[in-house]
Amino acid sequence: MLKFFCRIFILFFVLSCQQPDKEITFKGVWIEKSVLENKDKAETVDSLAKFPLILFEQEGGDSVLFYYDHSKRNVYPAEYAYNSYFVHFDKHNEYFLTPDYTTGELVFSNLKDDEFYRFVKIKPGLTRAEVLNPAFDIDSFIQLAE
């Protein structure tokens, strides 16, 4: 009887240690899901999300670029740990960017204000210089997104 329980315990342990089904790489452009879902409607990107675009230049990097609107784009310091990013918008609060392995999405959470946003990775990619360029038009970019 004890052997049976030991085998069941070992089976559960092995199954719980397996890697998630979907591998998520952060590097690239992530668009807020509601913005992408409404890209064919008359609403502008700026009216749909607090920050519609997030850019990770490298995997495990120490900063993340957030695009708010045509006049505001910020690069914030970030820490990569436990397959997530911890972003510091200010020195008092920490925000989380965590992968949802079941959907392949990225979840932004602001626990202080109970804000949660879902982001999806899109192609084509962008560089930091392209996003920071004053001529960058996010509405046109999203219309071309896959």
Topology:
Blueprint: H1 2-16, E1 28-32, H2 33-37, H3 45-48, E2 53-56, E3 63-69, E4 72-81, E5 84-87, E6 95-100, E7 105-110, E8 115-122, H4 128-132, H5 138-144
Antiparallel strand pairs: 1-2, 1-8, 2-3, 3-4, 4-5, 5-6, 6-7, 7-8
Q: Radius of gyration, rounded?
A: 19 Å
Order of helices and strands: HEHHEEEEEEEHH
Which regions have little confidence, pLDDT < 50, spanning 5+ residues?
Answer: 3-19
The general outline is globular
Report the helical percentage: 10-25%
N-to-C CA distance: 55 Å
**Going across the major beta sheet, what is the strand order?**
1-2-3-4-5-6-7-8
CATH topology: Lipocalin
SS-derived structural category? alpha+beta
Number of strands: 8
The appropriate CATH architecture is Beta Barrel
Averaged pLDDT: 79
CATH class, named Mainly Beta
Q: Report the total helices.
A: 5
Biggest β-sheet description = 8 strands, antiparallel, barrel
Number of domains: 1
Strand content: 25-35%
Care to describe what's here?
The chain has 146 residues and is α+β, with helices and mostly antiparallel strands. It has one domain: Lipocalin (Beta Barrel), CATH 2.40.128. The protein contains 5 helices and 8 strands; from the N terminus they run H-E-H-H-E-E-E-E-E-E-E-H-H. The protein has an 8-stranded antiparallel beta barrel. Residues 3-19 have low confidence and may be disordered.
